[in-house]
Amino acid sequence: xxxxxxxxxxxxxxxxxxxxxxxxxxxxxxxxxxxxxxxxxxxxxxxxxxxxxxxxxxxxxxxxxxxxxxxxxxxxxxxxxxxxxxxxxxxxxxxxxxxxxxxxxxxxxxxxxxxxxxxxxxxxxxxxxxxxxxxxxxxxxxxxxxxxxxxxxxxxxxxxxxxxxxxxxxxxxxxxxxxxxxxxxxxxxxxxxxxxxxxxxxxxxxxxxxxxxxxxxxxxxxxxxxxxxxxxxxxxxxxxxxxxxxxxxxxxxxxxxxxxxxxxxxxxxxxxxxxxxxxxxxxxxxxx
Length: 288
Prior knowledge:
Strand content: 5-15%
Mean pLDDT: 85
Number of strands: 7
Structural class: alpha/beta
Helix content: 40-55%
Strand order of the largest sheet: 1-2-3-4-7
């Protein structure tokens, strides 16, 4: 399982909420007027033979009205805390300061599991310290899910299963995470995408799923309806694409207006047109 990819998707889909949740200490001035842009993950190499350093998710925050100077966030998800390297994170940040000619860089480490980790890197000799490096740490297991259970930050709500809770609360945590998803995300495709995220990290047993269905019947009905709708829409899109391919094979390029009509058609119309395709001599006759 690629936890890195799960969190990259989450941050890319919800950059404002991600920065506000994972880097709250630096996010007070980041409102919806700020523009957040993902930047190149693989850092440029001085020589082609050099190893490259790849960031989890660097984000550039800009204020189009110029009221604040741009700010770089370097977000690094670490599943196994023992593998976290503060030296590597410091390298990332120094690379970015040089690449973007800025000193406004905020390093953020997101920890999915408990464990000891260095909090500061300090380089120097007997008389002076010459480099002091710190980072913001968002250790999800240290956060109480009760503090975030009703948050309007969708990144926080989706991460409820990664926070601290008693095992007896697992079903409630799962339910509140899904409720947040349905309430805060209007896009059905993204809802379905992040149901998987919640499922992965809640990891309910069969007995707990049965309990969820008993204790949260309305939420269960909503999610089942969403899954059925997305499945039916997927079938319908496939039928429309097949009809378009057959029309092109028989009549040549399909006009854009006709393509739009077919893509928006209901299943009954698609079936009727497909039956006509074999015996009619023009697209207009097929779609009449």
